[in-house]
Amino acid sequence: MANSPCREFIIKATFTCLIKFAFSYSFRNCMQVPDNSHTTYRCIKPHEPDITLIVRDLLSTATNLTVSLGSFEKIPEQAFQHLPNLSSLVLNNNQLGNIDKGAFINLTELKTLNLSCNNLSSLHRDVFGDVYNIRELLLGSNKLTDIDSLLFSNLTNLKTLDLRRNRLNHFSALVESITHLPSLTKLDLSFNHLTTLHHSAPLPQSLATLYVGNNKLHTLGCDAAFLMYVKVLDFSNNTLLSFQDFQGLNLGNITYLRLRFTKVSIIKLLNYTNVRPWHVDFSGLKLKDDQALHSLCYLLRSQSHQKKQIPKLICQDNSIKSIKNNTLNLCPSITGVLDLSRNEIKEAGCLEFLNGQNKLKSLRIEHNHLTKLFSCREAKEKFYSLRNVSFRYNRILEVNGFAFSHTPRLTNLQLNINIIAYMDHKALSGLRDLVTLRLDNNLLTDVYEDSFEDLISLKTLNLRNNQLAVIFNDAFKSLKKLTILDLGGNKIAQLKLHAFTGLDSLTKLYLDRNRLKKIDGTLFGKLNGTLLVLDLQENQIQYYTEHTHSPFINLTKLLDLKLDAQVPNGINLLPRAFFRGLTSLKQLYLTNNHITGFGAETFDDLENLEFLTLDNSCVGIAQLKPGIFKNLKKLTTLYAENMGIKFFSKEVFGNLTGLKVLHLNRNAMLTLDIGLLEKLIHLTYIDLRSCPLSCGCQNTELQNWTISNQRLQFPYLYNIICQDHTGSYFHNFDTNVCYLDLGLYLFSSTYAFTILLTVIPLLYVRLYWKFKYGYYVFRSWFGEQWRRLRDQEEKYKFDAFVSYNSADENWVMEQLLPNLEGSSFRLCLHHRDFELGWDIVDNIVAAVYGSRKTICVVSQSFLRSEWCSLEIQLASYRLFQEMQDVLLLVFLEPISERQVSAYHRMRKVMLKKTYLQWPGGNCSDPTSAKELFWSQLKRALRSSNTAGQEEQKLKEDNDQRRQEKTGVGVEEREYFLNQTPTDDAIYYQMP
């Protein structure tokens, strides 16, 4: 069912936002080819099981996409719709078994679609409906059994269709599906289960190449004109086909017909069909004896055109053991290639069997049983037209002198992949026109001064993978035109002083995988005028001092130098001026050398270097010195993997202003300098995989930068695991805790701490008891006694709670109790009335709030008691907060104002409320004073807790009484006058 317009809009908007904002220039499962064009992507071994998730973050500029070795099994609808510019989509070697019909929506620019090597067993007829511009469709190596007739109906531009290695068995339906494809030129149906070519529709006239080899064809069953437009036709390995199946077919346009390993009689085929014989590949048709070859040649001559020439004769896989001198006499003149490969020929002599073939240009006798090449100095016939001879893949052990005298005009000779152990000094004598000589993969142990003396035109000499140990003087002195010399893979331990004399045009010298222990600057210096490439990989080059002169001082034109992986342990010590003189060098390879250190001047002369590999080239932690790359302004690619690099600093990397690609995989870096990354303005690719990047605050900026920049690609960033936070990933580790202004935080903390240190002492002095009272009240809040003490006044248990110090206990017991309890007052004493088992604080609170009044018996001992202080504080809080007259102060002895001022709460009570002074020795008439004292105390206890009008009335009565009273002692009056009365204070004083 088609998507609604709203849904399409939402999807497009979502992908646009993801691409533009959510994802950086880094991809979860893919890697962009670092060419700065944002067009080519590779997703190899992606972890996601959904193709949509694999490609969802790719940029819409993508034109080439490869997704291989994945585990996804399905392509859902609209999987690639955000990639409208794709021209090549490769989805091979996956587990793909199902494709939704709308999977390729919006891929109107797609030209190549590769779905080979998957598990596809069927395809919906509309699956390719949206890729109508496709040119190449590859469906090979799947499990397709049938093809819907409308499957390819929209692919009007399709040119190549590959269906090889499937399970197709219905040819007619297949033809119906392609019959309306006007551009189809190539169809590959090999390795299927076809049994016949019976059809109900014609092939498109454009189809020029048809492969149906390796099927199970037992008959063709097709119309005579069915194959009339086909030019290249392969029926090989259909073992049941015979010439009768081709009888009557129109094969007039065939330019190449392959019938290898069928039952077709080639003689009858040529007699009963209109195929041109020189267009038939005669390989695998059992032409193993001279009689068969004679008959073939006769037939070829009789049917060839007027000039009696054919361009080629291919007779591979015919089990031919020998060819007599006159075997090919009856054949028309072969002007191009004679291919006798993959037979059983044991001897080629001096090519006598080519008698009469004086126009032949190429001879191939590969994959045979040749053991020796004989001298042909006395050969009766020379083949001046022969240019290319290949004896590859034989068993040649010996090449005698003048072995190629009968082919003096050879330009290309291939003797490689044999077992040649001996080659005569004059084996190649006379080959003055030879341009390419391949002797690689043999057992040669020596080359002599005259081995190549006649090869004055030679340009390429390949001696790779032999047993050469020494290159003697003047071995190549005649090779003035040689440009490529490959000596790699030998056992060369010594190069004589004049080994390269005469190589005036040499541009590429390969000495890799030998046993050289040093680089001879004098020797290579002779090649300074021409040498561009020098390969010294995997030798045994070692240095034991840093003060070695540069062996490359004269190679000023060298462009490519390879020094990778010196055995057994690498170069180790690299001389300071080792690369001096290489002013033109563009590529330098130093991988796997375990160098203990690089000097700051190591690369100073390499001003034109563009490519440098240092992978695995250090021992332990690499201490790259500041300025080591200071002159490499043109360097564009740097491989520095697994070097133990700990710091990405501007002192080391800051001068690489032209750098585009940087590989730092498997190093010891915990973070990167973002400022440096921003200054490397040409850098487009940086690989940090397997680096232990810290997921801490020091990398907060790096995390933000990696997921927000649009210039620099971090391949597989989303797979980088936090080494210090198991289970976390670098791209999304929590950075919230890092966003603090440290300076402000420290200032605020210090400021607050200073304020607290200043205020706490003041609070302690002023509010100590308030805090303590609040704490005790809070504790008592949850007790049952707290709720009971908050009842109304008539429910009070006691008339007064007596707070006193144990030092004053005698006065309380002898004076206070008899006078008050004798007058029916109920008093609460701590030693008598406190509840057993209660906390003492809870008892004090219960006593204060369970009594209508609190009598504090103040003395010097009272003021020094913490518990007495607590009791008066609790009572005073009740006085001031509940606005009830609940506190009575009784002074047993004179207390100075200075002593009272330390008790702020008591002094405040004295200024606001009444207090009594026990008449002691200061009174002239103590008896009358005591009577007045007890009278006033009882009156105060009987008064209501509401102070207001009662207190005002009491004040007025007291004033009047003092005026009328007579006989008051002088001392008492002076005491009274010494007080500091206020307007709202009343003093109870004994007369």
Automatic annotation (TrEMBL):
The keyword Calcium does not apply. The chain crosses the membrane at residues 742-765. Residues 950-974 have a biased composition (Basic and acidic residues). One of its GO terms (biological process) is toll-like receptor signaling pathway. It is a single-pass type I membrane protein. It is found in: Membrane. Its main location: membrane. The keyword Phosphoprotein does not apply. One of its GO terms (molecular function) is signaling receptor activity. Keywords: Glycoprotein, Immunity, Inflammatory response, Innate immunity, Leucine-rich repeat, Membrane, Receptor, Repeat, Signal, Transmembrane, Transmembrane helix. GO terms for cellular component: plasma membrane. This is Toll-like receptor 21. It comes from Triplophysa rosa.
